[in-house]
Amino acid sequence: MSRPADPVRSLLAEHGELCRRAVDPLEIAAGLEAGGVDEATVARCRHRDLFSLAEELHARAPRTPADAPPVDPVRAVGSTRGSRLRPALPLLPGAVCAGGLWLAHRLPPEAATGRAALGVACAVLTLLAVLVVLARRSPPGAAGLLALPPVGFALVGDAALGELLVGPQADTGSPAGAALLLALSVAPIAWCGDAFTGRALALLRAPRLREFTAAARALLLRTCLLLTLGLAAPAALLWLARPPWAPLGGEGALATAALAWPLGLAALLVRHGQRALAAGGLALVGGVELTALALASAGWLPGCGALAEPVAALVAARGVAAVPLLACAAGGCWLLVGAAVALPRASAHRPVPPRPVSLHAPHDRWDHGTGARPARSRAHPSANSPARATAPAVAAPFTCEEHDTR
């Protein structure tokens, strides 16, 4: 009677590249989880959980030691200096924006062109700072473009909405104050993202995936609380200081700080490969704000005054800042739920590297020394090849006694 096929060996052949490159079993478990290996597959391999299966795959995977490239001492010193300065780089957008606004305020009234140019430069700097913090570790994709409408609304949306609606509106501040607050918010967003990423990588040493998931959820909660405190600090500082070159009212500071919170969550999701979730949350924020502007604009058309009544009632009851607050609350809830589902997974922190694509398979190359063609492995059989029985380059399966001792 022939022995039954080893399911672990089949799984090892299917995920051979992942198992060979993995540095620990948890990286294999993350790759299997991302590849759709479920509990039924784990039970068919006679294991109690995914991590124990990953341990066996890690033990059985053949590995070839890679030669480490030589380290250039000059580059090593430069990287050390860069690592010391890197934590202070997120402060640069806020410092440059504050300097530009202060310089524009110091210009004489006759230099209106210079003031306008500096104001536009600070607004562009704010947009670039938001894009940079979203693309700090990976390309943001559509999330980078979808972040522009909410930032634009934070700069000029409140004033535009107040002009479209009939009646006196509260002063929410100038676009200069909103631009400065967003530029200052880049630092806490970047710092909280770095802290979460570094701590999550340290949590990957947990012996079980269940322990890692619980610890990652607690870490995400602490990061969100820290992000909230970090974003509230510059808003409170600007509201209390009230510099004449960047005036910002209480409602404007609250609305701008509320926008920085979903931007921080979106940057965290983009950093860990969840670009679709980040884009969806930012699209929700921009969609609510643009819908409010569209309804307020439609109220000026003949016979369409009823369209602007919901927005007018909300603004009359809670102020102009109620619209961005409502939009940021909806988008922030979307992003928070998505982060709570996606980021506690180990696969979000150890992405599986893509397989290299070669135009010529290894078994199609001739041996130039002997002039003979190498034998094909079982992973690439051929109908007319006599080498069909050649064993693949994987470890031999465990016996029942060896498996029980493990």
TrEMBL record:
**Keywords assigned by UniProt, alphabetized:** Membrane, Transmembrane, Transmembrane helix
- Please list the residue ranges that the record marks as compositionally biased, kind Basic and acidic residues: 361-370
Mitochondrion: is it a keyword of this entry?
A: no
Q: What residues form the membrane-spanning segments?
A: 85-104, 116-135, 142-166, 178-198, 219-240, 252-270, 277-301, 321-343
Region described as Disordered: 351-406
Presence of keyword Membrane: yes
* Protein name (database record): Integral membrane protein
The species this protein belongs to is Streptomyces mimosae
